[in-house]
Each structure stands twice: as structure tokens, then as C-alpha cells.
Design goal:
The protein has 108 residues and is of the alpha+beta class. It is built from 2 helices and 9 strands. The strands form 3 sheets. The protein has a 5-stranded antiparallel beta sheet. Strands 6-7 form a two-stranded antiparallel ribbon. The longest helix is centred in the middle third of the chain and has 18 residues.
Length: 108
């Protein structure tokens, strides 16, 4: 599975040759490790070369969870390793405190 944000139409087309795009920017498919790594290299090169976009790949691996994750670019979500477990963390914006007190956040 590959989740992307803000990729070029050409790169999205290349990914569609190997994966099914089940939702905009969400690709699912079964590819060999060689093809997966080649596609990831193209995605990573585009994301870092253009300083734009984000990608998250999730693929089977012989780990405790049964999969590994890798990401490229910036997003409000990031992959973190916690004692060998891959987790996704959401980056929160710094809360601003006004003269009337802290901003209400219902936590949803």
C-alpha cells in the first residue's frame, strides 16, 4: 500500500501501472520487493527533488507487526519507532493562548 499527497500527474500515472488507486492518492497492490523499491526510489526522488508532497509505504515484512513502513516528505503525520513497533504520530500545531484564556479544543 502506498499513500501519497501532492505528487505529479506523471508519477501518479506510473504508480497506477503497478497499483490500483482505490482512492485519490491511495494505491494498493502486490508487487515484488524489487519493483516496490524501484517505485519508492522514484517517489522519494520526486518528493525530495521538488520539496513537495508526501508518501507513506506499508509493505509485508518479517517483523512482529508483519509489515514495515517508510515515509518521504512532510505531513502532519510521521512514522515513529517505539521499541521496534512502527506507529504513526500526528503533529499538533502549537496551541495559542489569548488574553481570554486557552483556545477550546474538544479533542475530536
Amino acid at each position: 500500500m502506498l499513500v501519497t499527497e501532492r505528487l505529479s500527474p506523471g508519477l501518479r500515472g506510473a504508480l497506477s501501472q503497478w497499483y490500483i488507486e482505490v482512492n485519490p492518492g491511495v494505491y494498493v497492490g502486490t508487487v515484488s520487493a524489487r519493483i516496490r523499491d524501484q517505485l519508492w526510489s522514484q517517489v522519494e526522488t520526486w518528493v525530495y527533488g521538488n520539496n513537495l508532497g508526501y508518501a507513506l509505504a506499508v509493505y509485508p515484512a518479517p517483523t512482529e507487526q508483519g509489515y514495515e513502513m517508510r515515509s518521504a516528505g512532510t505531513s502532519r503525520y510521521s512514522v515513529v519507532d517505539l521499541h521496534g513497533l512502527s506507529l504513526v504520530s500526528e503533529q499538533h500545531k502549537e496551541r495559542q493562548v489569548s488574553d481570554s484564556g486557552p483556545e477550546f479544543d474538544p479533542g475530536w
